[in-house]
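quick one, 309 residues, struct below
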Amino acid sequence: MRGSDFAELKAFAAVVERASFARAAEHLGLSPSALSQTIRQLEARLDTRLLNRTTRSVAPTAAGDQLYGRIAPLFREMADAVAEVSAAAGQTSGTLRINTLGMAARQIIAPRLGRFHRAHPEVVLDIVVDDGLSDIVAGRFDAGIRVGGRLEKDMIAVRLTPDVNMIVAASPGYLAHRGMPRSPADLHHHACINWRLQLDGSAYRWEFEKKGQRLEIAAQGPLVTNYSDVGVEAALQGLGIVYAFDREHVDQHLAQGRLVQVLADWSVTRPGLFLYYPNRRHLQPALSAFIGCLLDRDLSATEPGHTPS
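---
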């Protein structure tokens, strides 16, 4: 393969992975015009259109998708090989793409960014916040962070946080006006702030448990959202009762008296957060270092955990 052939294929893969000429050009250190010319040269050489372009998006054609499916594993193997050699020489490098829930990005990743960069300055972190349970393999991510129980199958998983008790809460003003619910059934007579599951578009059914009795409530109210910050803010403004997944975000408001927990005796325990990644033969050195940073320890001599049920 000629050097120009390799450069064209690398440019094509970068565009597909980032779904953007501008982002791919920035990653490759090229101008967008130079990158466009490189892709045109590749398409002319293959006599096949590889990318469908509009003013707002770019996506592979059927031929482009087929080509990417063949070359992407090869590029990953080469990147892993280079990273392993660098790691053996005491250097960890490369780009690490992470797909994560918003609360994990805020609570776990953001506070450790500076420490990770100082320890591994040659690693580029590409963090994508996504509460939609995307397929990390199809999205070409190295790893994802999700709530346990909602992980993709056939993955290696590492626990990041303990299991948590869910909180149902409302503002003091709302409770003064509408009254305190005494049982989950009372929620049918209250305004509830609901969650939209992006995976299938359905609304989340609130889960409760007490003395072995489990209930699910189809909550109704003035707001449905897939973003926890919006739901909590709506509760703070008195729009209704919120079912909180992000304990760290809610606990501060409970401590300040801006929210009041309700139905505490019906609280259900949900799995904590896990980082997960495809089951490959070798763990990418940059990913190993990132996991170690998130766990506040060196993972170099430690095997990752197993996928939780």
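Confidence is low (pLDDT under 50) at residues 299-309.
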